[in-house]
């Protein structure tokens, strides 16, 4: 059994095209029905504004499966600590023996989450999309933009966050580290008005995005709602958008944005099924598309297998 620490993992696993291919392969396997994936085990720790999720999946034919333990404590930044932490345990799919402990402190979750956003945009956003609006100013707000650059020619960023100081700090960081022009906005509507893609990256309990905020042709990826008490999108968005996609229908209905519109009467697609079928839903530059990503165990097994191959030099 091997034990790998965050530094070792981060030196090998990058936000790049090969990592994106690995996570996309996991989505495609899910779409083909080749994945065993139980519901998420989730526990809230309300007095500390925290939660703990346990996710797992087995992809048929893959040598290993991962079990991820992921705590999220959202007051941690006030203590100078990261909001997310955790580790992944990698087991042999043949013997059930533990083969590796990836003590990544949430690094692989950050990477696979960003890549999932890029995969959603790859299959749903307009091909000529070049401008992105980010709602929120945390780590995912940075990584989502970096990952989007793997699939679209992004050369303009707009940001809105409730904390204007954090939004300004985000803009300064993105200009310095990613060489991108960033405009800080005073409202979500203002940021979205300038964008082809919008990504919500917040732990919000009430909607941060309204239907009236969205111009025609935009693609929306909602990343933050992965717990029943979270909600980033006004229900009208899901009811009115031309295309609605999720990573896992049952998860979105239980934990994600679909939970807040239980009477939604429309067809909702799963991202993995679209990828597996090579199907493109967008038929017009004017369509508004939405993808709700709650985070799936198959993403964790995919990125953990990929990380282990790199760490072992296979």
TrEMBL record:
GO molecular function, one term: ornithine cyclodeaminase activity
Any one GO cellular component localisation term in the record: cytoplasm
Keyword Lyase in annotation: yes
Keyword terms: Lyase
EC number(s) recorded for this UniProt protein: 4.3.1.12
A Pfam family recorded for this sequence: OCD_Mu_crystall
SUPFAM superfamilies, alphabetized: NAD(P)-binding Rossmann-fold domains
Keyword hit for Lyase: yes
EC class (word): lyase
Top-level taxon of the source organism: Bacteria
Protein name in the entry: Ornithine cyclodeaminase
């Amino acid at each position: 059994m091997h034990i790998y620490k965050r530094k070792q993992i981060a030196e090998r696993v990058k936000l790049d095209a090969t990592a994106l291919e690995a996570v996309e392969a996991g989505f495609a396997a899910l779409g083909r029905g080749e994945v065993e994936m139980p519901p998420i085990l989730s526990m809230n720790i309300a007095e500390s504004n925290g939660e703990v999720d346990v996710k797992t999946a087995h992809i048929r034919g893959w040598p290993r499966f991962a079990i991820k333990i992921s705590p999220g404590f959202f007051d941690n930044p006030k203590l100078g600590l990261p909001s997310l932490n955790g580790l992944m345990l990698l087991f042999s799919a043949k013997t059930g023996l533990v083969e590796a402990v990836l003590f990544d402190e949430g690094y692989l979750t950050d990477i696979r989450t960003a890549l999932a956003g890029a995969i959603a945009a790859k299959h749903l956003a307009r091909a000529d999309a070049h401008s992105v609006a980010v709602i929120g100013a945390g780590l995912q707000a940075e990584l989502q933009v970096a990952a989007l650059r793997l699939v679209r020619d992004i050369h303009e960023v707009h940001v809105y966050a409730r904390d204007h100081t954090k939004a300004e700090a985000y803009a300064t960081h993105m200009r310095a580290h990613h060489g991108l022009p960033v405009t800080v906005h005073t409202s979500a509507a203002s940021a979205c008005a300038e964008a082809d893609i919008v990504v919500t990256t917040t732990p919000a309990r009430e909607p941060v995005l309204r239907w009236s905020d969205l111009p025609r042709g935009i693609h929306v990826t909602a990343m933050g709602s992965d717990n029943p008490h979270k909600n980033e999108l006004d229900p009208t968005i899901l009811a009115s958008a031309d295309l609605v996609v999720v990573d896992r229908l049952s998860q979105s209905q239980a934990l994600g944005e679909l939970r807040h519109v239980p009477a939604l009467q429309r067809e909702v697609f799963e991202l993995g099924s679209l990828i597996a079928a090579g199907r493109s839903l967008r038929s017009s530059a004017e369509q508004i598309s939405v993808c709700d990503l709650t985070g799936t165990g198959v993403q964790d097994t995919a990125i953990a297998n990929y990380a282990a191959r790199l760490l072992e030099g296979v």
